């Protein structure tokens, strides 16, 4: 009886262990120069996946902003993954070892940028884990794979949402610019023509005319 | 399958999980770590739609001096500026709320002035919204499901959240398309209007100057 209870206990713990994968919501951080986010990877060989989008970048002049750099550093200090000069990208790689990983965003320019990022660390039990714990079924592997597939869909959605937010900022800016610059153009045109008329009047005024000849 | 023996073995489970680095095994304590500068505030934000549950937990991590952990202050503001959570001089805290309006929710943290050290401190934030913030233990207790069935229920919840997100993205895309089309029409009309303003202003100029010269008997 006691063995059955302990067996069930270990099986439940195994299930809890397998299905607790690290997951964070997609947060936005303002990057002035360097912003680093740390996340702990429990198992070696876990898949670290995620995406980031520069949401509120300097859309005032020029669409060829150099972008920001993204560097992932392992606990030992090696650069595991790096993306340079992008305004948003996805990434996926296997963790070479467990430990605290550092995800850094570098902003080469002085204007602060808001970056929306999402990092997910997924673990699928391998045959080694199955062999170690006899209460783990192959069904747990399939459930973990299904969970990872659903997480990847959710990650894509978060990426789309961040890109949509950036597109919306651009649209809003375009709308404001169209109205602002058009009305400004009309006012400027009217002002310039009034100034022209005043100047011509001044040229033909009596005081100037007497000074000719 | 698990019904009978579980209640008797609750404490050993918790004990073992506590001993085996449970901060990373129990889903409650997963988090990202941020560094808070010695001066200034560090803010994280997220754009959240309305009627979404937000659950967050933050704690200061300082391995150097565990006796005197530095304290921080936190503030969470809604997009309309309401203060949803405010905490001073704390080493950990949590907040939970349901969003009433959609927009940017910002959580800011800063170091308290009482600590004169010039070092940065590390803050762990566990921020969960929507389906991730759902309390599955209470669902399991209420509906008396456990094990594989509970896991599959969680996956079903995730799938429903995916569908909800798709609908939300579709609506946002429709709004943006409307704004784009209005801007497109406006560009055309404002350009034609600017041409019209140009012509009208030049006609007025010429008319005024002609009248002026006739008055001055120059022509």
UniProtKB/TrEMBL annotation, chain A:
Source organism, top-level taxon: Eukaryota
Database matches in Pfam families: EMP24_GP25L
GOLD domain mapped to chain residues: 34-121
Subcellular location field: Endomembrane system; Membrane
Entry-linked PROSITE patterns: GOLD
Main location: membrane
Membrane topology: Single-pass membrane protein; Single-pass type I membrane protein
TM region(s), chain numbering: 178-200
The keyword Transmembrane appears for this protein: yes
Signal peptide positions on this chain: 1-26
InterPro entries: Emp24-like, GOLD_dom, GOLD_dom_sf
Keyword flag Coiled coil: yes
Keywords recorded for this protein, A-Z: Coiled coil, Membrane, Signal, Transmembrane, Transmembrane helix
Family: Belongs to the EMP24/GP25L family.
PANTHER family, per the entry: TRANSMEMBRANE EMP24 DOMAIN-CONTAINING PROTEIN
Protein name per the record: GOLD domain-containing protein
Automatic annotation (TrEMBL), chain B:
Annotated membrane topology: Single-pass type I membrane protein
A Pfam family this chain is assigned to: EMP24_GP25L
Native organism: Hibiscus sabdariffa
Protein name from the UniProt record: GOLD domain-containing protein
Iron recorded as keyword: no
Secretion signal span: 1-25
Family membership: Belongs to the EMP24/GP25L family.
Taxonomic path: Eukaryota, Viridiplantae, Streptophyta, Embryophyta, Tracheophyta
Domain of life: Eukaryota
Record domain GOLD: where: 41-131
Annotated transmembrane regions: 187-209
Keywords: Coiled coil, Membrane, Signal, Transmembrane, Transmembrane helix
